[in-house]
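Contributing new complexes? Match this layout with adenosine-5'-triphosphate.
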Amino acid sequence: NTVDVNGIITSVMSTFKLKVEKYGGTIEADLEAEDAWVKVDEMHFTNVIFNLLDNAVKYAREDVPLSLFIRTRILDNDKVEISIQDNGIGIKKEDLKKIFEKFYRVSTGNVHNVKGFGLGLAYVHKIIHDLNGTIRAESELNIGTKFIIILPLIKNK
Ligand code: ATP
Ligand code: MG
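Output block (do not edit by hand):
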């Protein structure tokens, strides 16, 4: 199974667009990696992008509108980098190490009170690693979070 990275991102983005804009937020993309094909099941890859956008919406700050930025670019001619950046509540350093673990959820305090099983990122991590890819997160509390995925390309014209 092969998928066009930008194609999946564009379609998942469109499912979030109305929801984000309804609350005054924006969702933008710079999909530079044209014709970037990866060997992944379409449903799984759709779920990966969905989970990351879902988290960005769930963990948005309440005092500023959500600004979501998605970027794709080709690296070294044989890999694609996908980055998803939000301006949400952010994740503390101690927590950042654990977010890809099954059932891990940052202790919410009164910052946010949203439901979840703590499974989304564990799933994302597994799918990406099964493809010989990598995923990492950079975050700053109250500033935002950026997830960066790197996947090997099977074809890049
Ligand atoms: P599920 O995805 O299973 O519904 P979840 O969203 O709590 O539940 P994950 O997606 O695995 O679980 O995320 C783990 C934890 O990492 C979240 O509970 C949240 O605390 C934190 N987190 C994930 N994404 C973000 C983000 N974009 N901004 C801030 N915190 C995040
Ligand atoms: Mg989640």
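Reviewers usually confirm one structural detail per submission. For this one: The two ends are 18 Å apart (CA to CA).
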